[in-house]
Design brief:
Layout: H1 8-42, H2 51-93, H3 108-119, H4 127-132, H5 145-227, H6 232-265, H7 268-294
């Protein structure tokens, strides 16, 4: 079987199977021959037969021969399935996936090569070869496919270790980025709190000063009422004017507060803090995307 590229072990396996198939074929042919002999012995005892009698005998013979041939074909197909089962079972133990090309089963050149090999009558090997050619599925040697499998397993384990190391690095970077983000947020809140306290103190001082002024005017107004009724109208106008001034100042304070907030947002410290938070958020998003490629959510 050198034309098929078989080694000695596989060649012996093929020889054993072909011997088995030939023995089954010879046995079935003998059965068919016996059908004809039985017909001759049991029915062909007269010298003349009618057409109907001949037709009846041929029909009966056809049924018997057809049944024998069909049984042999079915048995051959089932036998081939059992042979494939042995081969596939052995391959799966070594994590191999065998494939077959059904079209090659009708390759006339290969079929002729098999026929030529069969004509050699399977040259009988010596006793040692017969012992090694017994129908036994031997494991593959360590220098062949098994070695390749071991190398592949080692490569996959090494790649897995690298992925685990990379994952731990990414986790460490993620935790560091989260810590930096927390620190930046706390610093921003502290800055905003200090700025707000300063603004609140300034507004409180201005309002207190205005309230003191209003109180003083009110006292003066009351004194003026008791001292001179003529100045009542003037004091009342002064009080109204002071109240208007108070409302105007409060409005100016509100505008000043908004302007102060606007200026604070334009300060370098605020912009830097906001830029740091933006960068940290982008880093966290990128790290999470990379983590999802290594640990997809189930």
């Amino acid at each position: 079987m050198a034309e098929f590229g078989f080694n000695e072990q596989h060649q012996n396996e093929v020889i054993n199977y072909m011997r088995f198939a030939r023995s089954k074929r010879v046995l079935r042919l003998k059965t068919i021959d016996s059908c004809f002999e039985e017909l001759k012995d049991s029915r062909l005892v007269e010298e003349t037969f009618t057409v109907d009698e001949v037709k009846e005998m041929l029909d009966g013979l056809q049924v018997v021969v057809r049944g024998e041939v069909e049984m042999e074909l079915i048995n051959t197909a089932h036998t081939n399935v059992l042979l494939l089962r042995q081969l596939f079972s052995q391959a799966e133990k070594f994590y191999l996936r065998l494939q077959s090309d059904i079209s090659e089963l009708e390759n006339r050149d290969l079929l002729e090569q098999v026929a030529e090999f069969e004509k050699t009558d399977f040259k009988t090997p010596d006793k040692k070869n017969q012992e090694t050619s017994k129908p036994k599925l031997a494991p593959l040697n360590e220098g062949g496919v098994s070695e390749l499998l071991n190398k592949e397993i080692a490569r996959l384990q090494e790649e897995n270790d690298k992925l685990k190391t990379r994952l731990r690095t990414l986790e460490s970077q993620t935790m560091s980025a989260l810590d930096d983000r927390s620190k930046a947020e706390r610093a921003l809140k502290d800055l905003q709190k200090v700025q707000g306290d300063q603004q609140f103190a300034a507004r409180s001082q201005e309002i207190g000063s205005l309230e003191d002024t209003v109180a003083a005017l009110k006292v003066d107004y009351e004194k003026s009422l008791s001292a001179n009724s003529v100045s009542h109208k003037s004091l009342q106008e002064n009080l109204i004017s002071a109240k208007h001034d108070l409302l105007r100042v409060q409005e100016q304070l509100s505008l000043a507060e908004k302007e102060l907030d606007k200026k604070f947002q334009q300060t370098a410290a605020y912009r830097n803090m906001k830029e740091i938070l933006t960068k940290k958020n982008e880093q966290i998003k990128e790290i999470r995307k990379r983590l999802q490629r290594y640990e997809p959510s189930e």
